[in-house]
Amino acid sequence: MTDGIFIAIGIFTLLCGSSVILCKSPVYSAFSLILSFFGLAGLYILLESPFIAVIQVLVYTGAIVVLFVYVVMLMNPNSSGAYRNWIFMIVSAFLAWAVSLYLLKALTLGVAPAVGGAHALSLKEVATLLFTKYLWPFEILSIFLVVMIVAVFALAKQSKETPNE
Amino acid sequence: MSNFSSVYWTQFIAIALIGLGMVGFLIRRNAIVVLMSIELMLNGVNLLLIEAAHRSGSADGTMLVVFIITIAAGEVAVGLGILLNLYRIKHSSDTELYKELQG
Amino acid sequence: MMMPLLLAAPLIGAIVNGLILRPATAKRAGVIASIAALTSFASVMVQHFAPDAGPFEWTWFTVGELTVKWSFASDPLTWMMCAVVTGIGSLIHIYSIGYMSHEHNAYRYFAYLNFFLFNMLVLITSTSLLGMFVGWEGVGLCSYLLIGYWFEDINKAKAGMKAFIVNRIGDAGFLIGIFICYQLFKTLNFAEIAKLLDTQTFDVRMLNLAAFFLFIGAMGKSAQIPLYVWLPDAMAGPTPVSALIHAATMVTAGIYLICRMNGLFLVAQDTSLFIAIIGISTALLSALIATSQRDIKKVLAYSTVSQLGLMFLALGCGAYLAAIFHVMTHAFFKALLFLGSGSVIHACEGEQDIWKMGGLKKKLPSTFLTFTIGTIAIAGIPPLAGFFSKDMILYSALTAKSYGTTFWILGLLVSFLTAFYMVRVWALTFLGEYRGDKHPHESPATMLIPLYILAFGSIVAGFLGMPEGLHLLPNYLEAFLHPVLGPLVEGHGALSEERAMAVATVSAIIACSLGFYFYSKPERSETPGKILVPFKTVFENKFWVDELYGLVIVKPFDALCAFFAKFFDPNIIDGLVLLPSKAAQGMGSLLVLLQTGIVQTYLLFFVFGLLVLFMVLLKGVVL
Amino acid sequence: MDQFDFIVLAVKTLVILVLIIQVVPVMIYLERKIAALIQDRPGPNRVGPLGLLQPVADALKLLMKEDPVPSNVNKFLFQIAPFLAVMPACLSLAALPLGDFFEIGDRKYLLQIADLNVGLLYIFAIGSLGIYGTLFGGWASNNKFSLIGAMRSASQIVSYEIPLALGVTGAVMMYGTLSLREMVFKQSGLLLGVLPNWGVFYQPLGFLVFFVAAFAETNRLPFDLPETEAELVAGFHTEYGSMSFASFFMAEYMAMTTMSAVMTTVYFGGWQIPYLSDEALFSMIGSRNILALIQVAVFFTKVMVFMCIYVWVRWTLPRFRFDQLMKLSWGNLIPIGLINIVLTAIGLYFWDKR
After folding, report:
1. Which of A79, C209, C228, C423 has a Cα-to-Cα distance from D87 of 20 to 30 A?
2. What does the H/E/C string look like for chain B?
3. Would you call A119 helix, strand, or coil by DSSP?
4. Is residue A11 one of the residues assigned to a domain?
5. For the domain that residue A61 is a member of, what is the CATH number?
6. DSSP code of C201?
7. Domain end marker among A77, A106, A136
8. Chain B contacts of C599, Cβ < 8 Å?
9. ipTM above 0.85, yes or no
10. C610: nearest CA in chain B?
């Protein structure tokens, strides 16, 4: 039964994903992006990692897509000429398909046996791991975030300076 | 709920997401949609990681996903900042207009 | 010991004048040059009475089995030529002192004159063809320098160049001749070649070829048919130069060469015939042109060319003695005539057109006297020198093996024309009233003394080679040159020698009277022009030979050079050089197309690269 | 999960949903009454005795009115926006523990829809989705005022999410768990013999930050900028007609309820009666279900107390300017939150109560 739900949500996610890239107006792409992230959150829950699902909803849907919608609202781009010319579409479609095929083949080559018995990761375990095994990445990540903030400020300041002709 | 008849499905969905993302940022002319398709690809990767973590039972996959999500957040912030500046100059978000750096 | 002195004197004179005492005045430089010339003349005289032992020589260079030596020796032929060259040379040096007195840097003129003398002596005294060739080139150089002495005037400079280039063409033929001789005889020494010719038999065709190329060298230097165009233009130089180089010495080098190689030419009969034909045709052509020339020096130049033509006629018929005898006599009276015309021009402040002179008898008495002796000598009136040498040539032509009579008749016509145009010049310059606007005056003593000496020479020179038939004097010259030139060949022609002499004399007298009749009175001087109107323009324009050369040789040559300069070099050669750079640019512009600047094209390349990467990594896996 | 449990779960979800939805009309009535009280006027008393039927009248009015859709509007998003606003408000109820548990037959059922061990995080995640309703609503209605209103409210909610989270982190560190149910159990008993063992006394700073941030999250008065009548007419929901406007209104009130519920659960002991522990109460009453009812009643009284505070604050404090608003969040609340976390950490290190 769970397989059925899993496949259903999977297909839903893929549908929303394809509508992200196919919708002419970016607002609808943003909207379908939100739906696909919900789908993904559902998949994570089915894969027994609720923490990641909640983080996904909180961070991705709650913050990142908000930024996207924010920028879309600021720009309100017209939806004319959404796609590149035909040759590009065909070529890129073929390339993407071929690469995915190869990826799939590469992944299935190294499939490790299903160990099973995975337990849902509680917050405590994540926290302990974060500060023991992954302390260094955690610290570096904090520095990375500070750098990001400084970068965004610089960009914001720059845009203020350039006279909007 | 613990294990599925075949692992094949999750990998298929994840790689399909990655493929869609790839097609997205090659086809679309609108810079925002390009960024969105990159996010889509990242999520595909996250799904693969979670599936691997689930299958092998180790927490490393989960931790990696957490890191990826934070980095993605930073990346989108800066990406959209740059996009806004480009928009301020070009009054349009069409990638084919940003081609001063050509031969 | 005399030989080194002979050569060294003019060389030292040239160096002193040219390089050391540069700012000397004309007189001082002239005196030094004349002393040098006289010492060399004295050494020639002493050489005659106390000849040196062997050839004076030292090795120059050795290539393979050929060792070339500077070697100078004297035998009767060389001695005689040296005597003529140094004798007349010193006379002309003395004459030039007066002539060049008003020139401000005459030291250059005298240096060249001495250097010319040195080269001429090297040419005559060297015992090998290569040594002669060095002299040959030196003489050509000096004639160029001297013709172009007043190089400020572009025409004179051009005349110098013309002379030099035409001589060079002749020299090229001479060089090829030397190569062939070396190929045949494996030696360049005259004596050895003569010995080989007597002992061994060579392929006649090769001999003819060698003789032919040597004759081309002679043609260039002695101004025969195709290469004579430079001599009339060479008159652009000062008159003593014309006298010395273009009358007495340099032009005779060609004849000396053939006499020196007489062994070869005796065997190469076809070339000798060819020489005869060329000689007589040159003589006839230049004589006709001379009759209608206005410039006094041009008339004398063409008369020189025709006299040289006669000499070559004699060489062609095998009469080497007659040729040398005529060289000697011609040197005397032609130098005399040139120096005479020089003093006339000097008097008329550079006026050379005979129609603007006349009546100079009273104003230039001594010049008039010497000029008249010269004219009588060249006309061939007995007992003066011209008659005997010219008659010897005509008689030898008559007794030649082939076409003897035709050569004799043409020779007779040439001497008739010679007499006619010389009397014409003489009459127009000295008789009648003065037509010019200058006021001529007699030349100074230094110029007149050489004229008198030369006049005496042109009277006496004839008696040296009198034919036996007249039983007056033994033929000294024949005895003297016998060892070098071989026996005088006794042929039998249509007429005997005495009768031939008589006919020649009668024709000369008729020509003189005809010329006198026409040109002594001014009103009658136009009539010959009217009679020969169609021919007159042809003669005046020198048969348009210069124009012909210009058209046939110079213009196509220029076109060829233009082609190479304008088309071949810039496009083909530069094109090849620039090809790689242009190719690189082309390639560069191609690659630029890849850089469209649009991010998504780069992404496309990225994805394509990814695909290729996967293909490579997963080679074995079948999708 | 056999058949029966599923039904019980469905019924439980329905009951809780209806209960929360019923809060909205009550609140409308209360809001008008308290506002009137503060402004010293009688308030609604015409409709029904003491104006009690006023909310019904309002509801009927909103239902009856026409729901216009302007022409040059992005049709799809315009109509979706109200639902997007309401959806997160409802979803976030799932994790709220109304009481301990009740029994049917021999099986115990929790008095909350789902006891997630990431309960609090879940509530914040769903809470942050509320932004989309305002964003799409403002943008879709295609007029300058609503767009600016949407922009302001989005940036306000995003920037107040952080202090909200920081405030709560202190409490979470203390309780050591994200599950709301265990938090409530941890708050039973007495502190120093006198005070009930509630989170607020341990985390006064944390509570203060959370309290202020809660106001901003729900766009309640001091942070009322998105709907300021003066400049932006009605902010992002200017163009909306009756039912859509009603749904925005409902979303706002349910968000308030959720925030109050979270505050009571985390800081005020949820369904705990101050000086009476559950067992003592159970021994008095005897039946588990009646105890459950009492617990639910206690929980709701606490929630109502907070709601009244909301309304009370709304009619007393003036509105912030936008830059003051931002300065308050980034300048004041976040630093206080961080300090609070540090203090809690020190406290825990020394008096590790657990």
Report:
1. A79
2. CCCCCCCHHHHHHHHHHHHHHHHHHHHECEHHHHHHHHHHHHHHHHHHHHHHHHHHCCCHHHHHHHHHHHHHHHHHHHHHHHHHHHHHHHCCCEHHHCCCCCC
3. coil
4. yes
5. 1.20.120.1200
6. -
7. A77
8. 34, 95, 98
9. no
10. B22
Burial letters C500-538, b for 16+ CB under 10 A, else e: bbeebeebbeebbebbbebbbeeeebeebeeeeeeeeee
Contacts A92 to C, Cβ<8 Å: 604, 607
* B residues 25-54 lying closer than 8 A (beta carbon) to A: 26-30, 32-33, 35-37, 39-40, 43, 46-48, 50-54
Contacts of C595 in chain B (CB under 8 A): 102-103
pLDDT digits (tens, 9 = 90+) for C131-161: 899 999 999 999 999 888 888 888 889 888 8
Instruction: Give the nearest partner residue to B102 out of C597, C604, C607, using CB atoms.
Output: C597
Q: Has residue B99 been placed in a domain? A: no
Q: What is the Cα–Cα distance from A148 to A151, expressed in whole angstroms?
A: 5
Total structural domains in chain B? Answer: 1
Residue A33 lies in a domain: yes
DSSP assignment of D250-312, as one string?
HHHHHHHHHHHHHHHHHHS-TT-BTTB-HHHHHHHH--HHHHHHHHHHHHHHHHHHHHHHHHH
A:64-93 residues touching chain B, CB 8 A cutoff: 64, 67-68, 70-72, 74-75, 77, 81-84, 88-89, 92-93
Take residue D246 and report the two structure tokens written for it: 């009603």
Min Cα separation A148/chain B (Å): 6
- CATH code of B80's domain: 1.10.287.3510
Helix, coil or strand: residue C392: helix
Q: Is residue B97 part of a domain?
A: no
Going from the C-alpha of C382 to that of each of C303, C336, C378, C453, C508, the distances in angstroms are 19, 18, 10, 19, 10
Q: Please report the pLDDT score of residue B71 as a whole number.
A: 92
Q: A69 and A7: one domain?
A: yes
Same domain, A65 and A132: no
The answer to whether the Cβ–Cβ distance between D128 and A61 falls below 8 Å is yes
Domain-embedded: residue A91:
no
- Give residue A18's domain range: 1-77
d(CA C520, CA C11): 47
Identify which of C300-304, C356-360, D103-107 has the greatest average pLDDT: C300-304
Q: Is residue A92 part of a domain?
A: no
Matching residue, tokens 């012909």: C548
Q: Cβ contacts of residue B80 below 8 Å, gap of 6+? A: A67, A68, A70, A71, B32, B35
A78: helix, strand or coil: coil
**Is there a contact between B71 and A64 if contact means CB atoms under 8 Å apart?**
no
Per the rule left: phi > 0, alpha: psi between -120 and 50, beta: everything else, D56 is: alpha
Binary contact (A106, C607; C-beta < 8 A):
no
Reported as a single tens digit per residue, the pLDDT across C264-280 is: 888 888 888 899 899 99
What predicted TM-score, i.e. pTM, was given to this entire model? 0.61
Q: Which chains touch C (3 or more CB pairs under 8 A)?
A: A, B
Touch between D and C (at least 3 CB pairs under 8 Å): no
Interface check for C593 against chain B (CB to CB < 8 A): the answer is yes
Q: Which of B37-51, C487-501, D307-321 ranks highest by mean pLDDT?
A: B37-51
Cβ–Cβ gap A58/D176 under 8 Å: no
- The amino acid sitting at D192 is L
Q: Which of the other chains make 3 or more beta carbon contacts under 8 angstroms with chain A?
A: B, C, D
Which residues in C lie closer than 8 A to residue A106 (C-beta atoms)?
A: 614, 617-618, 621
Q: Which residue of A has its CA nearest to C606?
A: A95
- Do A68 and A5 have their domain in common? yes
A92 lies within 8 A of chain C by CB: yes
d(CA B61, CA B66): 9
- Tally of domains in chain A: 2
Name every residue whose Cβ is closer than 8 Å to that of residue D64 and which is 6 or more positions away in sequence: D242
